[in-house]
Every structure is written in structure tokens, then in C-alpha cells.
Amino acid sequence: MAQIPSYLLLTSNEMAFADGMAAQSGIPSFDLMIRAGHAVAAAALSRFPEALRFTVLCGPGNNGGDGYVAARVLAAAGGRVAVFALGDTARLNGDARLAFEAWDGGVAPLEEFEPLAGDIVIDALFGAGLSRDVPPEVGKVIAAVAKAAVPVLAVDLPSGLNGRSGNILEAAFKADCTITFMARKPGHLLLPGRSLCGDIEVADIGIPGRIIEAAAGLLAENLPEIWSGLLPIAGSDSHKYRRGHLVVFSGEASKTGAARLSALAGLKTGAGLVTVASPADAMAANVAHLTAVMLRQIETEMELNEWLDSARLSAFVLGPGFGIGNRARDFVLALKNMPLVLDADGITSFKDDPAALFEAFADGKVRLVLTPHEGEFGRLFPDLAADESLSKVDKALKAAERAHAAIVYKGADTVIASPDGRAMINTNGPPWLATAGSGDVLAGMIGALLAQGMPAFEAAAAGVYLHGEAATIAGPGMTAEDLAEQAGQAMADLSRSR
Where does the YjeF C-terminal domain start and stop, copy by copy (predicted)? Predict the structure, then answer.
């Protein structure tokens, strides 16, 4: 396969641009379609040797052309093949017309399709370029295939999914396998698309890697190859002050656990010093539970400012269990010149005046990391959250630009975005990561990486990835305490693999 970075993601427009560049470089576009169809047929034969019939559903565009080529190859290999077409085949043009004409079997209207026992459905209706709801006749076919529970192999992307957002456009196939070409699309990784793609194969159809890389934008899967060169690694000359001093703010006496989780995760992720800054009424609760993590009483904004003036403090985490209100806002604004992870209550404290937060961090290099889940995102960015025309990536990018912050838009498909237009989709978080306290641990891990000097976007991306790795190590049934304990092992494993 062409040497293409595995983390690259291409939108349908970027893939179309790559196709055009390939044609300009002298590669006939029909040759690409032939290779794509051969790849689809090879996947069908290898994955479904038990098939009694390969049913190929062909759309009116190039995705359908891939299907016609696949049908011809499958028939030549001895398979029983039936082809059903959406729309009037007399209106096919370009490469799709050539592929249709090369198919020497019959073609029936899509409306006549009925799944049979032993069928393998090859979905070549729309692919990644679909941006409108599927027609009613396609919706009926999708429902019939689901009811019959026959396997589906999707070409490029299960029909009915938006390739940029991963959203379902009225109805969509649930594929056992999806074969795409040269690079994955955002819709393969974003939910709900990820849950409908099955196993994803990326087939090399002969477009040079230099063209794919030139066509690609700033969106990628969150993988260590992107940021591992910036990951802080302890050397023989390391000492605690070089590894940074992380401060985590505690809430009141009844809500101290979240801050301690963040602090423990920060310590395990490599911060040289970690201090829990506690209000007076929570000092006793915190001192009873802290050992390697230090403790300091910080009750007022004045005390915080005095500490900032006198100590070497590297980065801060504010939000977990802190409480919502004026004190949170005052503390955040006092930290406006420092690297800060703002989570949970810290985010919600600015729901009535998000502009005050954004203005405080608007100048200079990015030093604010916001880690909202769906509800918190809507509190800071209500207009973006309500805009159904935007994908999760689009929302995160617009939020990052507005806030001049690295955004960690949490969920099973967490998106990390930067004000400069870079964005990554995270995929390594296991299902059991959705547990109470998990977000507190993530905030501490990102804070530790900030304290050790990583830039905000890379620290956020690395923290999210390591968070997923720590959860995998901890295994099903883990608690947030287990997750925090495994943060160090995840960091060590990644360091050894570099």
C-alpha cells in the first residue's frame, strides 16, 4: 500500500480532489474504479465464502460503478450474482456508465430486491458523499435487509451515513464490513457511523501517497505518531522541578474526592510536584487522604494571587468538585496567564457569561484546555450545540476558535480541536471508560502534560489517548481510582514504544 500515515482522514470533498489530482497526473479515473471494484470483490470472497448469492445494490454515481465492477469480478470467480440498480441506468454517465456497460449480467430495479437466505448484500448505493436523506425506496431496502439479518459489505461507507459527520440520514445500513479507498473518512470514526461500519478495510487503489497527503486537511485520528515527539520523557537529569508543578483545586469538605482523583492522575502522568489547593473547611478531609500529593490552603482570590507571585507553579486544573459560582469565576480569571484545564463546575460557572472566559484567554499562545461533555458544551456554546448542520468536529473547531482554547469535546467519539484548525477524533476508549470520576482523571492527566511543557492541543490529545490506554489496562469493572492508578503504566508503555 502507498505509504500514507495511518492517522489521516479525508472528507469526501478531499477524496474527490485527490481523484482529480490523480487524473491530472496521468492515472485514468476508470482504472481507479476497476481497482476499487476488484478490492470490493476480493473482500466479499474472502470474508463471505459461504455466500449463496452476492446481491449488489448499485447507485447512480461512481459508488454504483464500483459495484458493477465488483459484480463482474464476482461472476467471473464463479459466484452467483444479482444486481439491482437505483434509478434509470440509461442516465448513467462517465466511469459509472463504462462500468455498467462492462457488466454482462442482468440488472433489476432496486424496488424488486428482496433479501434471500444466504445473500451477501454489497451496498454500492451512495458511499461517503451522501448529504441528503436517503430516498424512501432505499429506506425500505435498508429495513428489509435489517429484518432479514443478512450480512452487508458496504462500499466506502454504509449508505445512509454522512461521510463528514457520521450522522444517519433518515436510515442507514448496518454493515459487517466496510471497504474504503486510500484513507478513512470522518464518518467511519464519529458516532453513530462508527457503530454501523463493522470492520473497516482501507484498500490501495493506486493513488500515490503524495497526492493523498496533499489532499488531506487538518483532521486525523488521535494516534501517538502525531504528538509522541512532544511527550515528556523523564531522563537521567530529570528532577521534580523540571517536571513541573501541577495544582488541582479542591471543592468544599463534602466534595473533595474529584480533586484528589485529578491530583493522583496528574502525579501518575509524570508531574514532578502536585498540590491540592483546598478551602479551609476541606483541609481536614484532604489531609486524611493525601500522601505524595501536597496540600495548601487557598480560600480567597487574594491568597491565590499571593501564591502565584511567590511560587513556581506550572499548570492548573479547576472544576472537578469545585462548585459553581463567583469563586470559580474569580479563580479562573486570576489564572488567565497560566496553563489551565477547565472542567466540570469550572465550565458551568461561565454558562451565563462565556465571553468573560474567552476574553480572558484570548491573547498569546493557547493555554486554556476546555473539557466539556455534551451538556457542558451546550452551556458554553449553545448556538453551536443546537446547529444540526455541523458535525461534532465542526462544532469543536468553531468552539476552539471562539474560545482560543484546545477543546476536548468528550464522548465515546471524543474530538480534540485547536484554534488553528487542527482536529483529531479519538477511538481507543473502551466502553467501561464511561464511569463516575473518569473525567476528573482525564483533567489531571492533561494538566500533568501541560505542567511538563507540552503545548495545549498536544497535551489534550495525548491526555485523551493515554486515558483510553489506562482504561484498557485497568479492564472491565474498573473504578476511577483504578483508572488513575494505571495512568502511569499507560505513560510508561507508550514511552517504551517510542
Answer: 223-494
- Digit-coded pLDDT (tens) for 366-421: 999 999 999 999 999 999 999 999 999 999 999 999 999 999 999 999 999 999 99
User: Does residue 75 lie in a domain region?
Assistant: yes
d(CA 107, CA 67): 12
160 is in an annotated binding site: no
Would you call 354 exposed, middle or buried from its count of C-beta atoms within 10 A (0-12, 13-18, 19+)? middle
Radius of gyration from C-alpha coordinates of the chain: 26
Query: Any known ligand binding at 493?
Result: no
Residue 97 among known ligand-binding residues: no
309 is in an annotated binding site: no
Please count the structural domains in the chain.
Answer: 2
Report the C-alpha gap between 145 and 152 in whole angstroms.
8
Let me know whether 211 and 228 are in one domain: no
Verify that 186 and 281 share a domain, yes or no: no
> Does the pTM exceed 0.85?
yes
Q: Is 106 annotated as a binding residue?
A: no
65 marked among binding-site residues: yes
In angstroms, rounded to a whole number, what is the distance separating the alpha carbons of residues 457 and 417? 7
Q: Is 188 annotated as a binding residue?
A: no
Provide the residue type at 95 as one letter. Answer: D
| 79 annotated to a ligand binding site | no
Residues 489, 353, single domain; the answer is yes
**57 assigned binding-site residue:** no
Q: Is residue 5 part of a domain?
A: no
pLDDT band at 233 (very low <50, low <70, confident <90, very high): confident
244 annotated as belonging to a binding site for a ligand? no
Q: Is 422 annotated as a binding residue?
A: no
156 is in an annotated binding site: yes
Residue 205 lies in a domain: yes
365 is in an annotated binding site: no
Sheet order of strands, 177-181 included: 107-109, 81-85, 53-58, 119-124, 152-155, 177-181, 199-203
| Statement: residue 446 has pLDDT above 70 | yes
**Residue where a domain stops, chosen among 200, 217, 234:** 217
440 is in an annotated binding site: yes
Nearest to 315 by CA among 452, 190, 189, 469: 452
321 is an annotated ligand-binding site residue: yes
Is position 159 annotated in a ligand binding site?
yes
Q: Which of residues 184, 217, 250 is at a domain's end?
A: 217
* Residue 95 annotated in ligand binding: no
pLDDT in tens, 297-317: 999 999 999 999 999 999 999
66 assigned ligand-binding residue: yes
Q: Encode pLDDT of 5-40 as tens digits.
A: 999 999 999 999 999 999 999 999 999 999 999 999
Q: What is the model's pLDDT at position 236?
A: 47
- 282: domain range? 224-497
